[in-house]
Amino acid sequence: MTGMTVDNRHPARSATSGESAPREVRRRPKNRRAQIAAASAAAFGSHGYHGVSMEGIAAELGISSAALYRHYPSKYSLFREELLRVGTAMSASAHLPEAAQNWSPRQRLWHILDTLIATAIDNRATLTLVRWEVRYLDPADLATLIDEQKTLTVALETHLGDIRPELSRADLRVLRASVLSVVTSIADHRATLPTKSLAALLNAACAAIVTAELPDPRPDEATVASVEIPDSFKHELLLHKSAELFHEHGYPNVSMDDIATAAGLSAASAVYRFYRGKSDLLAAAFRRGAEMVSGAIRAAVADSTDAEVTLTTLIEHYVARSFAERALSFVYYTEFQHVPVDERTVLRNIQRLSVEEWARLLREVRPELSPVQARIHIHAAFAMVVDLGRAFGNRPTASQERVRWLMRQVLFGV
C-alpha cells in the first residue's frame, strides 16, 4: 500500500514445502497524520470543500476509510485544520523581527509583503480555501480565522499609513485589499513561474498599488442598476436568480425548488422546461459571462490599433460588467467545479483565449513581460476587481473609476 513500510529487522523465513509463505509485517508510518493532511489539502485545493470525500482521500492514500477516521473524525475536521493552518501562516507574515525597530517604514512594509508573498507561493495549492471556501466554516471557526486575518490587515494598513500619511483610512483599506488580492490571486489560475520570478512579479505589482495616486472618491456617475428581467423571459430570469442564490448560499446548498420559487415558478418541475438541472443553469450562466468578455475583446480590437487604448477600453468594460453582475462574477470563482466536465472544458478554452488576448495586448505595451508573466498580471487584475467588489460593494471608496485605475496600475506598472 502507498506510504506503508516493511519492518526488515527480522528477515522473513522462507517457506518450505507444504508451508504457506510467511506474511510480511507492515508497520503504520509515523507520519500518517501528516500524509493525510497533505492529501486532503491537495484535494480541497483542487475540488473545493463539497467536491471532496473521506473515501476519496483514503483511496488516494491507499488506506481504508476506517484508518482515515482513526486520525480525523470527519471531512470537516480536515478542512478546518488546513484552512486555519494557511490562515495562521499568512497572519504570521505580519510579525517583524526585533531589528525592525531601526528600519524605515518602507522596509517594514516590504518585509511583511515579501514574507506574505513567500507564504502564499508555498501554500498556493490550498490558498483557494482562504479566498473562496471560508463560508463553509462553522461560526466559531470562522471567527477564529477572522481574528487571525485582522493581525495581517491591521499591520498592512498601519505600515501603509506610515508610508502614505496623506491617505484616509478608507483609502488605506482599499490599497490593502488590493495588495492582498494580487498576492492571493495565484490561487485562481495555473500559470507558473520559478519561485523567485513569481515573487518578484507579485512584489512589483504590489509596489504599483502602494504608490498609486487614487482618484478622489466619488459616486459613480451612473449607479449600477439591478438587472430587470420581464417575468415572461423565464429562461433569463432563471439564470439571474440562480446566480444570486448560488452567490448567497453556495451551489450545494441551493435546491431546484429554491430556484423555482425565486423565479416565480410554481414548482421545480417547471424549471426543467428550460434547463435539465442545476448544473446546466450554472454552465449556461458561465457561458453567457465568458462570451460577453470574449465579445468585448473583438469589438475593442476592431475599434483601435493602439494596444494601450484597446486595453483601457477592455478595462472599462470588464469593471462595468463586474459591477453589474457581482453575483455571477463571484460564483465563477467559487463554483466552477460544479459545472459538467464537458462544459467545463469549453468554458476553460473560452477563458484561456480571452486571457491570452489580453496578455498579447499587454505585451505590446510592456514588451519586457514574457507570455506567462503577462497572463499572471491579467489574472491578478481580474481577481482584484472581484475582491474589491466583495469588500466594498458600490461605495465611492471603491468606485468604478478607482477600480479601473487600480487595474491599470497592476497591468501597466508604476
From TrEMBL:
UniProt region (Disordered), positions on chain: 1-31
Signal peptide: none
Domain called HTH tetR-type: residue spans: 30-90, 232-293
Keywords, in A-Z order: DNA-binding
DNA-binding region(s) in UniProt: 53-72
The organism's place on the tree of life at top rank: Bacteria
InterPro entries, per database record: Homeodomain-like_sf (IPR009057), HTH-type_TetR-like_transc_reg (IPR050109), HTH_TetR (IPR001647)
Name of this protein: TetR/AcrR family transcriptional regulator
